[in-house]
């Protein structure tokens, strides 16, 4: 018994199954997570190692190179690159797509552990960070500082409150992975040494450093057993207050040798001397650094020298980065979610918690500055509206053709039934509601009714022949079940290769493919079960075919036209082939890009000053740009970060200190970010202090980098610097690109102090001691910590008031033991596969990235590249070509699967070959549509071509199946005209909302819909004309069966 016969025999059971599916779909829909894009496991990990106070060359030699060698032996590596900054090493390891990154990261950590002991002293433990686009920030929150602008103590208390209350409470929210506080200062206890006093007491900074670090301790000393009880022994000598720090004894000024000081009690006496009984510590007195007890030593054996005798101790607040909101100083909270968390739900929970915190702490001014959840909701709402509108248009077409609300209802019910049935499947397969899954549903809406239309139209045909409605429902459904199953399988088959793609394109479109496959499978089940049952229940016995729109005249004209054209078949076929060839000649004129740019209501402005610029100078330039932006009407808010930068492209978990750079995130009230970004660049094009550029915010799809990246690889850094400048100058001359830059900033001038070995050794000064003295003189040296209210405040020793402030003063102080020379030093050293490299990046002025790169390649033919140096093109351009190749292979496999399904359906190899004729004619429409609408050949439009290869054969399958049964080609073609037009028009109209959609994220839908509409339109016209003529021509010469 067939499924259709069983459904008609048991209508109540069928209706109950339908209701169960609808209820289950309604219940599961709210449980599906909401995200912008599918979960992407990017095959890249970054080894991040921080080494305070080290320069790029030290970082490269002592950390980066060893790390590259160790992780380079990990299995599955495609590429290794690295960047050595001041104080920071980053080694980026890129694996082949499909690599298990959890296992790869574990293997990298094991290899790194073997060299950790060989890292220089002071280097922090290397961290392996997996690159995950879903871990990018979901919200920025600013905390106003205007209320605490008085004493720095107010700032400290405010930051402590934010760190301990706001940050910790936000971290506890389900789905939040991290909350980073930016723009914070650092409290320091500064021990400002007085040079005259140091000389008076014959002390040096090394001795004072040793005393401070040695006396402020809390360390275990072992254990003892006493009275059957084990006691832990701990040596405790911590500073409990700043007064105690000031009264720390750093030496004893002996009366017999004024001006000479011992830096410990016992050093005041020679070996063998015996203290008087009243001053022997073993007999009567314990020695302490406390001044009150130290006074017992005044007299014959000298006066104690205390820390405040030689230094000024100050509790200070140092700010190395700034955050501003609309020109007002603030703190910044950068919130990231867990990779599998629901972005929209997480941001909603964050907003609720922020409201509670604001109510409890009135002194805080918490402002959510940017919320990715709002953007996602806006995008998904737009896609959902397009889907609903597409469904309405499809139902309207059905009513126009059927002219009966019951018939329309029967077919239209397959849309919500099929869609709701996909939600449980999506839930149990781990899919989320994102722009791709919802686009899959919107795309499938027009196709969902195809099977139902074919079934219902055939049932009506049998009713017209005089059969009872129940018999007509069973017979009519069974008669077309084979071709609609075949047509559904051909459509599903084209998506199977997409599941095999392992690159970024495959990840992006896998979710779309799943939803289309799920919905089509459910629509097939609905057509074979629900449609015949509802026909019996709703149509009745007296419903006739005359209720359809009168297109008999159209059918007659179509049949007569086919008869006429069949006599001139070779001319018609020749003309069609010429049209196809002409359209393919337009292919090189189509622009090429990876994905269409996503419209956003925000963009970023990057402000770069020469390396070495003070934070205050950078703030002045940022303020200038900030004020310009705030004067623009369309600007809603400006969030500026100055002096620190966290890279989103290479992962998370570290922040780079960049006092010469600032970044402004501009939030707009409209989606016109491109216009204002160009306006900003034009306004500050020739700024006398800074390089200022505007660009789109980095998002989930920008992991590949800038649109165009040219890697110049070679051995010598100086040659790379000169050659990359020549290349950048040549590229800048082209009108097709903008924002040309190098990742090799202007060298930062540095003073290189090199010890004179003989002279320094005669004075007993080692190179490490000299470097420590330099650190003490210039920036201060961290000696120990002071604990207060659970906080650890560094105690920094230095000559803050009297230290050298110029090159000449440094030369004068160290001239006896060292040479001092000013040399340009690199701010970053880039390496790729063991060689140094420089990246020249640029943005394409148009969407034709492929054409821009071709222009660059032609231009660079004039540049002489020395032997040993080479150019590689990367960025989104590399992603584009990689996806082209992957999708090209997927298209070829899709065509093979479609042929195999049809061969199994018709038990013939010739009929499938005939049907495949309709596929190349669909490409004609795709090319013309993209060309006329000024769209590009991108991953979305190519995906449309793959879908077309399974979609356009559906009409051909139905047509050929009917021709086979009717014997007459012309009669079979005219009989299938109505269902072919109905299914095609419903699909086309359902796609129109996607094609004309305007708003964030609509660009991907536009490209996909353009290629589908153009291809389906041309394929349908040519199928109705060319395919019957081909069959007639072949039948006249061969036996198709």
Secondary structure elements and their pairing?
Elements: H1 3-9, H2 11-28, E1 44-50, H3 56-71, E2 77-85, E3 88-95, H4 101-113, E4 127-130, E5 137-144, H5 152-171, E6 176-182, E7 185-193, H6 195-200, H7 205-215, E8 217-226, E9 229-237, H8 242-246, E10 249-253, E11 261-262, H9 291-294, E12 303-306, H10 307-310, E13 311-319, E14 322-325, E15 328-337, H11 343-360, E16 366-371, H12 372-402, H13 405-412, H14 414-428, H15 435-464, H16 469-493, H17 496-500, H18 504-539, H19 552-567, H20 569-585, E17 591-592, E18 602-608, H21 615-630, E19 635-645, E20 656-668, H22 673-683, E21 691-696, E22 708-714, H23 717-732, E23 737-742, E24 748-755, H24 757-762, H25 767-778, E25 781-788, E26 791-798, H26 807-814, E27 818-825, E28 828-832, E29 835-844, H27 849-860, E30 870-874, H28 876-906, H29 910-915, H30 918-932, E31 936-937, H31 939-966, H32 969-975, H33 977-996, H34 1002-1035
Parallel strand pairs: 7-26, 17-31
Antiparallel strand pairs: 1-3, 1-4, 2-3, 2-28, 5-15, 5-16, 6-15, 7-13, 8-9, 10-11, 10-12, 14-15, 14-19, 18-20, 18-21, 19-20, 22-29, 22-30, 23-29, 24-27, 25-26, 28-29
Helix pairs in contact: 1-18, 2-14, 2-18, 5-11, 11-12, 12-13, 12-15, 12-33, 13-15, 13-18, 14-15, 14-18, 15-16, 15-18, 15-33, 16-18, 16-28, 16-31, 19-32, 20-30, 20-34, 28-31, 30-31, 30-34, 31-32, 31-34, 33-34
């Amino acid at each position: 018994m067939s499924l259709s016969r069983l459904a008609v025999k048991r209508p109540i059971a069928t209706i109950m199954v339908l209701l169960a599916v609808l209820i289950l779909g309604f219940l599961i829909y709210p449980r599906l997570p909401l995200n912008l894009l599918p979960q992407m496991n990017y095959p890249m990990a970054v080894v991040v190692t921080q080494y305070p106070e080290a320069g790029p060359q030290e970082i490269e030699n002592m950390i980066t190179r060893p790390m590259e060698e160790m992780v380079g032996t990990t299995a599955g590596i495609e590429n290794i690159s690295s960047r050595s900054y001041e104080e920071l090493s980053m080694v980026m390891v890129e694996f082949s797509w499909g690599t298990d990154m959890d296992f790869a990261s574990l293997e990298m950590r094991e290899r790194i552990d073997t060299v950790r002991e060989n890292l220089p002293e002071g280097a922090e433990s290397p961290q392996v960070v997996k690159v995950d686009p879903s871990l990018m920030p979901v919200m920025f929150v600013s905390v106003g500082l205007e209320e605490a602008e008085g004493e720095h103590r107010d700032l400290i208390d405010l930051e402590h409150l934010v760190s301990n209350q706001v940050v910790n409470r936000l971290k506890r929210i389900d789905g939040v992975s991290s909350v980073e506080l930016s723009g914070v200062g650092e409290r320091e206890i500064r021990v400002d040494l007085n040079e005259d006093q140091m000389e008076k007491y014959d002390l040096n900074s090394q001795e004072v450093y040793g005393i401070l670090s040695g006396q402020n301790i809390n360390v275990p000393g072992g254990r003892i057993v006493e009275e059957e009880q084990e006691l832990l022994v701990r040596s405790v000598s911590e500073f409990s207050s700043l007064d105690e720090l000031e009264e720390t004894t750093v030496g004893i000024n002996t009366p017999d040798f004024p001006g000479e000081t011992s830096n410990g009690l016992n050093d005041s006496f020679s070996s063998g001397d015996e203290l008087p009984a009243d001053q022997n510590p073993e007999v009567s007195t314990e020695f302490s650094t406390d001044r009150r007890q130290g006074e017992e030593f005044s007299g014959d054996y000298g006066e104690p020298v205390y820390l405040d005798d030689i230094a000024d101790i100050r509790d200070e607040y140092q700010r190395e980065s700034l955050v501003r909101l609309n020109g007002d100083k603030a703190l910044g909270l950068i919130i990231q979610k867990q990779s599998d968390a629901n972005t929209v739900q997480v941001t909603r929970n964050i907003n609720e918690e922020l409201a509670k915190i604001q109510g409890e702490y009135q002194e805080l001014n918490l402002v959510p500055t940017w919320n990715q959840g709002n953007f996602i909701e806006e995008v998904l709402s737009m896609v959902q509206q397009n889907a609903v509108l597409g469904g309405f248009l499809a139902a309207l077409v059905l009513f126009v053709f059927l002219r009966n609300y019951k018939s329309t209802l029967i077919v239209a019910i397959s849309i919500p039934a099929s869609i709701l049935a996909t939600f449980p499947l999506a839930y149990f397969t781990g899919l989320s509601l994102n722009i791709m899954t919802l686009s899959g549903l919107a795309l499938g809406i027009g196709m969902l009714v195809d099977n139902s239309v074919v079934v219902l139209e055939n049932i009506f045909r049998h009713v017209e022949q005089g059969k009872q409605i129940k018999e007509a429902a069973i017979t009519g459904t069974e008669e077309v079940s084979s071709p609609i199953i075949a047509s559904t399988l051909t459509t599903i088959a084209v998506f199977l290769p997409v599941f095999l793609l392992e690159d970024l394109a495959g990840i992006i479109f896998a979710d779309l493919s799943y939803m289309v496959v799920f919905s089509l499978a459910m629509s097939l089940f609905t057509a074979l079960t629900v449609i015949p049952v509802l026909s019996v229940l709703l149509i009745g016995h007296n419903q006739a075919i005359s209720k359809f729109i009168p297109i008999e005249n159209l059918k007659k004209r179509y049949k007569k036209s086919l008869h006429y054209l069949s006599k001139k078949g070779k001319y018609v076929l020749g003309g069609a082939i010429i049209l196809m060839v002409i359209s393919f000649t337009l292919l090189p004129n189509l622009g090429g890009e990876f994905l269409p740019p996503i419209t956003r209501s925000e963009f970023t402005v990057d402000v770069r000053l020469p390396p070495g610029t003070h934070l205050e100078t950078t703030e002045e330039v940022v303020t200038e740009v900030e004020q310009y932006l705030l004067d623009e009407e369309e600007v809603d808010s400006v969030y500026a970060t100055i002096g620190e930068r966290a890279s989103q492209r290479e992962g998370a978990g570290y922040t780079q200190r960049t006092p010469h750079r600032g970044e402004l995130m501009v939030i707009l009230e409209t989606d016109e970010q491109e216009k204002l970004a160009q306006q900003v660049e034009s306004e500050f094009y020739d700024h006398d202090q800074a390089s200022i550029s505007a660009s789109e915010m980095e998002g989930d799809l920008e992991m590949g980098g800038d649109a165009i990246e040219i890697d110049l690889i070679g051995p010598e850094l100086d040659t790379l610097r000169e050659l990359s400048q020549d290349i950048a100058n040549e590229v800048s001359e082209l009108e097709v690109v903008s924002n040309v830059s190098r990742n090799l900033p202007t060298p930062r001038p540095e003073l290189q102090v090199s010890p004179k070995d003989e002279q320094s050794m005669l004075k007993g000064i080692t190179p490490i001691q000299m470097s420590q003295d330099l650190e003490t003189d210039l920036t201060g040296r961290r000696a120990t910590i002071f604990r207060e209210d659970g906080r650890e405040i560094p105690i920094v020793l230095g000559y803050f008031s009297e230290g050298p402030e110029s090159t000449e003063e440094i030369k004068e102080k160290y001239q006896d033991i060292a040479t001092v020379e000013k040399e340009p030093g690199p701010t970053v050293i880039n390496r790729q596969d063991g060689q140094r490299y420089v990246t020249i990046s640029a943005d394409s002025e148009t969407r034709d990235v492929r054409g821009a790169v071709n222009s660059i390649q032609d231009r660079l033919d004039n540049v002489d590249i020395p032997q040993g140096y080479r150019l590689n093109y990367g960025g989104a351009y590399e992603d584009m070509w990689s996806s082209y190749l992957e999708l090209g292979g997927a298209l070829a496999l899709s065509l093979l699967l479609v042929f195999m399904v049809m061969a199994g359906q018709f038990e013939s190899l010739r009929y499938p070959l005939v049907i495949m004729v309709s596929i190349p004619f669909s490409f004609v429409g795709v090319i013309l549509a993209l060309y006329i609408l000024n769209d590009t050949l991108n991953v979305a439009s190519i995906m449309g071509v793959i879908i077309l290869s399974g979609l356009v054969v559906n009409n051909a399958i139905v047509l050929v199946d009917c021709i086979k049964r009717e014997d007459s080609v012309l009669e079979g073609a005219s009989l299938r005209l109505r269902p072919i037009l109905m299914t095609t028009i419903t699909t086309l109209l359902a796609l129109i909302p996607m094609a004309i959609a305007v708003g964030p994220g609509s660009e991907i839908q536009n490209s996909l819909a353009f290629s589908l509409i153009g291809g389906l339109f041309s394929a349908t016209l040519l199928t109705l004309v060319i395919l019957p003529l081909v069959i007639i021509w072949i039948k006249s010469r061969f036996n198709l069966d």
